[in-house]
Amino acid sequence: xxxxxxxxxxxxxxxxxxxxxxxxxxxxxxxxxxxxxxxxxxxxxxxxxxxxxxxxxxxxxxxxxxxxxxxxxxxxxxxxxxxxxxxxxxxxxxxxxxxxxxxxxxxxxxxxxxxxxxxxxxxxxxxxxxxxxxxxxxxxxxxxxxxxxxxxxxxxxxxxxxxxxxxxxxxxxxxxxxxxxxxxxxxxxxxxxxxxxxxxxxxxxxxxxxxxxxxxxxxxxxxxxxxxxxxxxxxxxxxxxxxxxxxxxxxxxxxxxxxxxxxxxxxxxxxxxxxxxxxxxxxxxxxxxxxxxxxxxxxxxxxxxxxxxxxxxxx
Length: 315
Ligand code: ZN
Known about the structure:
The protein is α/β, with parallel strands linked by helices.
């Protein structure tokens, strides 16, 4: 833990492994193991975590314990507990469980959106409006984020134009969401594109521009995070051990690896508030809960460089 609480981290690392990671692997992590893992993530100093997805258990048995996991995460203090919800029904369950913040995926690709939720992107904006009305009615302090998925390209549709993404972001901001992030769901983004699109996002919706959610499918996850940082993004989604990928595509890696992302920022002198040694330790309960699942990360493989010291930890 940091011993200098007055130092506010310059970037927010939003750990999405318990949601994005676990829902992408075939095995189901037992609830008790999830809770141990979440404890370890909290102990490492993470201050935002996406712990579950509120979807029907018949679609995602890995998330059947979502409410219990949210309640446990809420018992740990000083962090924001997030849940992914695809619709109003999921939002109601997540709000009733007490989640601090909801994230709603809204696909910029019409093809992806129709295939996944049988709705066009603009019909999803209406769903978001309903979620916001529900939030105002039953949990007015909760925040609602929209994450624009397939913002950088789509495996079904191919190219997604920047105009489409910006138009959708404007509609979501107008609907009243607290922030709008951009997700490279399919790992197709490159740094030049990331810079361009986040610049346009800031120009369009100002301080409602939210997180960069990058996947490492083609090895550009960190480069894309750095590109987003360079144009002003300060919240980054990542997953411990790069957990995720796709059970049907062997070797496909998932989200940006939290350990590598934290190492990059800390080595640059950009404080994250996260203790790298604690993060490395958090791999043990993850392994225990998902034996045999490959974990990624260059920093965990190589170890910390000789003499490397985290400002925040020693200051
Ligand atoms: Zn993702």
